[in-house]
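Budget justification note: compute hours in this period were largely spent on complex prediction jobs such as the one shown. Inputs:
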Amino acid sequence: NAGVTQTPKFQVLKTGQSMTLQCAQDMNHEYMSWYRQDPGMGLRLIHYSVGAGITDQGEVPNGYNVSRSTTEDFPLRLLSAAPSQTSVYFCASSYAWNTYEQYFGPGTRLTVT
Amino acid sequence: ILNVEQSPQSLHVQEGDSTNFTCSFPSSNFYALHWYRWETAKSPEALFVMTLNGDEKKKGRISATLNTKEGYSYLYIKGSQPEDSATYLCACNAGGTSYGKLTFGQGTILTVHP
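Corresponding output:
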């Protein structure tokens, strides 16, 4: 199993550009989520999905969109990048949302200039 | 938004010392408490998931306890080694308006000096 994969590993965007961060898992996990990690802020939940076709907002959803058309994939779209979105983004998955451990991808380091 | 707090923020210990950290969380609508270990330049990895009041879990020299009535969990490391240096995160699942979300604390950064 590849586990949770994320692409790209690094990305530099200009303010106003849009892009999609890809996340895929091959463990047949129902629950998937996106976090951003900023110094001194820990991991903050952006969006999550409890199954294909179902998504909801986390703690910091503004400026991001998600969709979950398959169990395996959970892409994160930045609509119009802003410098405040410079961060490291982690995708995670688990069998279910509550009592099961989360498996994290390797992260995407995004810089917006 | 759940308030999950960890203390201390950082900790420096000598090799061989035993140490412990605290995670506090709201006790209402509680589902589960997670502990993760996060090494520099890697991704967080799960240590424990605990659900029941009084739960105790152990993995090698690391153990954790859970008190859901008062809303806290302790993580213990016995005989710390330099390879234990990492950030230790706790996270909480709860119901109500937090249903579906896993909320993380800010982490405790542990440095073990040889």
